[in-house]
Specification:
- By secondary structure, the protein is α+β, with helices and mostly antiparallel strands.
- Among the domains are: 93-131 and 209-245, Alpha-Beta Plaits (2-Layer Sandwich); 133-208, Sporulation related repeat (Alpha-Beta Plaits, 2-Layer Sandwich), CATH 3.30.70.
- Helices cover 38% and strands 24% of the residues.
- It has helices spanning 2-25, 51-73, 86-93, 106-118, 146-158, 184-196, and strands at 95-103, 122-140, 165-166, 176-181, 202-220, 241-245.
- The chain has a 6-stranded antiparallel β-sheet, with helices on one face.
Length: 249
């Protein structure tokens, strides 16, 4: 027992000795470096500065802030406003020319001209040869000879028909004229009466040579009125229309 205890003590001493030798010979690293000595002036409170030192500090602060102010002033906010194009200006000011007509007479054309000038438009009046409606003609078509036409006329007169004559002009030679009417309703009534008597009456529009009147206007397209502006000045022969024309001069 004593021998075992002695052996344990020897082993313990040997372990302590080995650890000590290892620890003593191990590299513990480089010794810590000392901080370099402080240089420069010690910190001072503003209240501890001399007047000259305070002035120097204020000048340095102003110089440091100046570039920032210049940078801000050099970049003002801008709003992009597109400039009108040449094409847009030209389109808005483009002048066009139109003609209105035909007007049935000079009085109607004069009234139309006044309306255009009240709108501030450059306008003028002109006339051209034409035909005007002159009512409605009821008739019997041309017979084969004057004798046949005279016989038909005599028979109609016996039946109480008045205002009848035999046409002598070349275009409708030997036709029977049964009346010219300014209103279509009266002409239709006359046609029906003759047909009831067993004759094939016809009705046709009548025209006569008369000048037709037109108005020419020039201005911005949006300012030129539509043809409906003059519908109360037209007659039954032809409505008043509007047509684009070439501008003169």
């Amino acid at each position: 027992m004593k021998k075992a205890l002695l052996l344990i003590l020897l082993l313990a001493n040997l372990g302590v000795f080995t650890w000590y030798r290892w620890y003593a010979s191990a590299d513990r690293g480089a010794p810590p470096q000392l901080a370099p000595p402080l240089t420069g002036q010690p910190l001072k409170l503003m209240s501890e500065l001399t007047p000259a030192e305070k002035k120097a500090v204020a000048s340095a602060a102003t110089a440091a802030a100046a570039p920032a102010a210049v940078t801000v002033a050099a970049a003002p906010a801008t709003t992009h406003v597109p400039a009108p194009t040449t094409a847009g200006i030209a389109a808005a000011a483009a002048q066009v020319c139109v003609s209105y007509g035909p007007f049935p007479n000079a009085d109607a054309a004069g009234l139309g001209l006044s309306r255009l000038k009240l709108l501030g438009l450059v306008a003028s009046q002109r006339s051209i040869p034409g035909k005007a409606k002159h009512g409605y003609w009821v008739y019997l078509p041309p017979f084969g000879s004057r004798k046949e036409a005279d016989a038909a006329a005599a028979l109609l007169k016996k039946k109480g028909v008045t205002d009848i004559y035999v046409v002598a002009d070349e275009a409708n030679r030997n036709a029977l004229s049964l009346g010219v009417f300014s209103q279509k309703d009266f002409a239709v009534q006359r046609e029906k009466e003759i047909r009831k008597l067993g004759f094939h009456a016809l009705m046709a529009d009548r025209f006569r040579d008369e000048p037709r009147y037109w108005l020419d206007a020039k201005g911005v397209e949006a300012a030129l009125p539509q043809a409906d502006t003059f519908k109360d000045l037209a007659d039954d022969s032809a409505p008043i229309g509007k047509a684009t024309t070439a501008c003169q001069g």
